[in-house]
Structure formats: structure tokens, C-alpha cells
């Protein structure tokens, strides 16, 4: 299967944003989380691209995308996502965000509802006063991460990002993830800007305005964004399905890759319902 | 932890009540924050339209960057306001 690549221009500032598009069919825009490039979606791209057109991109300042600003917001990154759709000539797409990407996906659905066919919110949180924060050890690690060597930071994050079952039974998957991650340059400035953006994210009181079908997926053992956040969002979202994966941590696409099939089925159902 | 949380939430609750009171004459906090959000969007879109219309540098880049800053500063203000207003 061939992959097309290119650059879009970010709205309001003009930084180039790198994108990749794999497969044909109804488009799905994948939005990744903190500090990771679009390449981190490789498992999901392989799973979804046989039936869908799967689009990934590097956030501003990450991977091959540039940023002209030292600080930015989740709203800015949501606008970046629409710049990618504009560049590809797509009126709308299914949107699947994980972690920080899920926060961006919420903002995208609120700021540009006409661009979102359906929404998958993975391992993410709604922001605001009610959001359940990670414990102090996790927060301290993520604050210090930008000062660590890239490889050291990647391995140190394993105990927070992956559940105990995956660490015990599938260490090879974690190795694969980290090898892929280390292929991309790490931008400490952009990472800190993303941390600020995530801290200021706040959609909780407006989730009831998201009308598109939404699928909330979360690992029950997630230490980075506790699973209680998935329940908070599911209570507020009017058209929502919730799946909590047992014995699974934050990076569930690695730990429970079978969930991609459920997500693919969800997109199929949404498309069948709108035809 | 519960003690720290209590200390933090009491001033937040006071702030919420004050903000709700201030917004009441204009239809409530939700209407006010939505209106402010809309005004930010309009301002940023206007700045972007000006930037698109004028290709002269550095005016073009400065105006486009200013539009992004308008959006981001406004979004940060709204996020903080909504944090206080969430009951």
C-alpha cells in the first residue's frame, strides 16, 4: 500500500505541517499525543488502512513539522488539523485522537463540527476542574522529561505509559514502539508547549454540544490519564459509547491492538448510518 | 491531599459566584463566555483575512502571527474562566 506525504500550512502563522495519507476510502484523521509524531500511529495505520484512507500528521514543532511560536494551545492544534484536511481537499473525516490528541479532537469537534464525521477519544480527558489528574509521581516525570536524554526518557516512561500485563507479556511491542519513537527528533521546546496546551485544555462544560457519534476508549490501568476521565466524558457526551480495556495502560493501541477492529467497526457503523 | 484541595476549591467557588453574578445581567456565564469566544474567532478571522489580502512582507507574516496569538490568548483566558465557572 502506498503512502502519500506532503506539507500543509498552519492557519495563523504559516508553519509547515507534515502529513501522511495511506489507503483509500472514507478518510480518518489520526491525532497523536504528547511529544510523539504521527509515525507513532504505525500499528493503527496498518490496521485501518485496508478499508479506510488513514491520515496522520506531525503536530507543530514535532517531527517534520515546524512551529513559529514558542507557546500554543489545543485550539491552535485543532486548527492545524483542519489545515491538514484543507490541504487534502477533504470536507470532513472521522477523527481519532489519543491522549493530547483526544483533547485536540474534542476542540476540533467543538470549533469545526462540520469537519468531523465521528469521534474516537482514546485515553484522554475533558479538562476543567472535574478532570482527574495523574498522581504526583507521573506528573513529576512528565515535567522533567524534556530535560532528559531522548532515549533515557523513552525508557523511563515505560512504567507510566504501559500497563503491567503488556510489560510482562509483550515487551517486544514496547521495544518496537521505542525504536520507532527514537527515529524522530525530539523538540524539548515543543514538548513544553504541548504540556502547557494540555494543562489549559478545558472542554468539560461544552462536551454536551458534540453531536457526532463518539467512541470513548480507555485503559483501566492508565496512570497518565486515569480511567475516571473516560466515565466523566461518557456522562457528558450525548451520543457516546464507552469501552474500558481491562489490564491495559495509557498506550492501549500497543497493549490491546485488537481494539482497532472495534474502532474500524464503529467508523463503518457511522458511515452506514449516514448513507 | 483533601485538605489542600479544600483550600484551593474554596477561593475558586467564591470566584465562580462572583463571575456568575457579573455575567447575570447579560444572560449568564455560559452566554457571556460563548459570546467572548465568538468575538475572538471573528477578530482572528478578520486578521487572517487582512493577512491574506496583503502579501507585502513583513506585514503579511506579522498579521497572520497576530491572528494566531489572538486565538491563543483568548483560548487561554476562556479556559481559565471556564475552570472557575464549572460548578
What does this structure look like?
The complex is a heterodimer of chains A (275) and B (87). With 275 residues, chain A is an alpha/beta fold. Chain A has helices spanning 42-48, 74-87, 100-111, 136-144, 150-156, 158-161, 164-169, 171-182, 188-200, 228-236, 252-255, 259-274; strands at 3-9, 16-22, 27-31, 53-57, 93-98, 116-122, 214-219, 240-245. Chain A has an 8-stranded mixed beta sheet with strand order 1-2-4-3-5-6-7-8, sandwiched between helices. Chain A is globular, with a radius of gyration of 17 Å. Chain B is mainly alpha-helical and 87 residues long. Helix content of chain B is 85%, strand content 0%. Chain B has 3 helices and no strands. Chain B has helices spanning 2-23, 29-53, 59-85. Chain B is elongated. The interface between A and B is medium-sized, with 22 and 23 residues.
For this entry, give a set of tags.
heterodimer, A: 275 residues, alpha/beta, Rossmann fold, eight-stranded mixed beta sheet, 12 helices, 18% strand, globular, B: 87 residues, mainly alpha, 3 helices, elongated
The helical percent of chain A reads 40-55%
Q: Please, what is the CATH homologous superfamily of chain A? A: Alpha/Beta hydrolase fold, catalytic domain
Number of strands of chain A: 8
The domain tally of chain A reads 1
Q: Biggest interface and which pair forms it?
A: A-B, 22 and 23 residues
Secondary-structure element sequence of chain A? Answer: EEEHEHEHEHHHHHHEHEHH
Q: Which stretches of chain A of 5+ consecutive residues score pLDDT under 50?
A: none
Biggest pleated sheet of chain B: none
| Gyration radius of chain A, rounded | 17 Å
CATH architecture of chain A: 3-Layer(aba) Sandwich
Spatial arrangement of strands, main beta sheet of chain A = 1-2-4-3-5-6-7-8
Main sheet properties of chain A: 8 strands, mixed
Q: What is the element string of chain B, with H for helices and E for strands?
A: HHH
CATH secondary-structure class of chain A: Alpha Beta
Number of helices of chain A: 12
Mean pLDDT value of chain B: 86
Q: Per CATH, what is the topology of chain A?
A: Rossmann fold
The low-confidence parts of chain B are none
Distance between the termini of chain B: 20 Å
